[in-house]
Specification:
The protein is of the alpha/beta class. It has one domain: Spore Coat Polysaccharide Biosynthesis Protein SpsA, Chain A (Alpha-Beta Complex), CATH 3.90.550. Strands 1, 2, 3, 4, 5, 6, 7, 8 and 9 form a 9-stranded mixed beta sheet that branches. The longest helix is centred in the middle third of the chain and has 17 residues.
Length: 255
């Protein structure tokens, strides 16, 4: 087993099928599947080109678990994102972990491109650039100016990720996984600790597609300011361990 894809979920019946469908279209074989491609073999990180998908579910009340089962995923008990990712890592057999949010889509062949770049650059941990799943001009401007450009400029100072984290198993274990006491910005804390002992970079070979539901429901300005505040808070005071930002998991439903 080379790659374990770990997805925290809570009531994601609308989005999870889109992600799982995009994974199944990648140039990879799941464990036990035959490679029917005669022209371009699956990219490998080592001796075999297999992956597994682990859905760490926080007791969804919709069809999330049923959908995951239909796609052949391994389903385990999850919780809030940090706990779900840690539990997923414990159940994983891969040498490399890919943590994805449930509301993203992987463009065709992007996974092979990501892993090829990860390997060629001799990285231990990485994130990637993001495009919105929207043709809205505001969304495109926000994602490119306020996210993509900023994470590229700050990658050596403050590693960041929106919903994609690729890391070697050994490094995840060495830093003790995600800090489950952090209420908001746990991904930034995770990457910061990982980058201190491993080689981190932003992958440029492809971009994932991310849902804009949080911004649409909470407001672009409000959500943007929340992330700006979080960045400065982390720089000045460190991890956010109180719930003053009132983060909620699994309540965004709009398409």
């Amino acid at each position: 087993m080379n790659l374990s894809i770990i997805i925290p979920t809570l009531n994601e019946e609308d989005y999870l099928p889109l992600l799982l469908k995009s994974i199944k279209k990648q140039n990879f074989r799941a464990e036990g599947e035959e490679d029917k491609s005669s022209s371009s073999p699956s990219l490998s990180l080592g001796e075999s080109s297999v992956y597994e998908i682990i859905v760490a579910d926080a007791c969804s009340q919709d069809k999330t678990a049923e959908i995951a089962r239909d796609y052949g995923c391994k389903i385990i008990n999850g919780g809030l994102p940090s706990k779900a990712r840690n539990e997923g890592a414990k159940a994983a057999g891969g040498k490399v972990f890919l943590f994805l949010d449930a509301d993203v889509i992987l463009p065709e062949n992007s996974l092979a491109e990501f892993l090829e770049e990860f390997k060629k650059r001799n990285l231990d941990v990485a994130s990637c650039l993001v495009n919105p799943q929207s043709k809205n001009l505001t969304a495109k401007i926000y994602y490119n100016i306020f996210y993509n450009i900023s994470i590229l400029l700050l990658q050596k100072i403050r590693p960041s990720a929106m919903n994609f984290m690729l890391i070697k198993r050994e490094l995840h274990q060495n830093i003790g996984g995600f800090d489950e006491t952090i209420k908001f910005g746990e991904d930034v804390d995770y990457l910061t600790r990982a980058s201190k002992i491993g080689r981190f970079a932003i992958l440029k070979s492809a971009r994932i597609l991310s849902s804009t539901r949080r911004f649409e429901e909470e407001g672009w300005l409000k959500t943007g300011l929340k992330y700006v505040f979080t960045t400065f808070y982390l720089l000045i005071k460190g991890p956010i361990k109180s719930d003053f930002l009132k983060y909620k998991f699994g309540h965004h439903k709009s398409q």
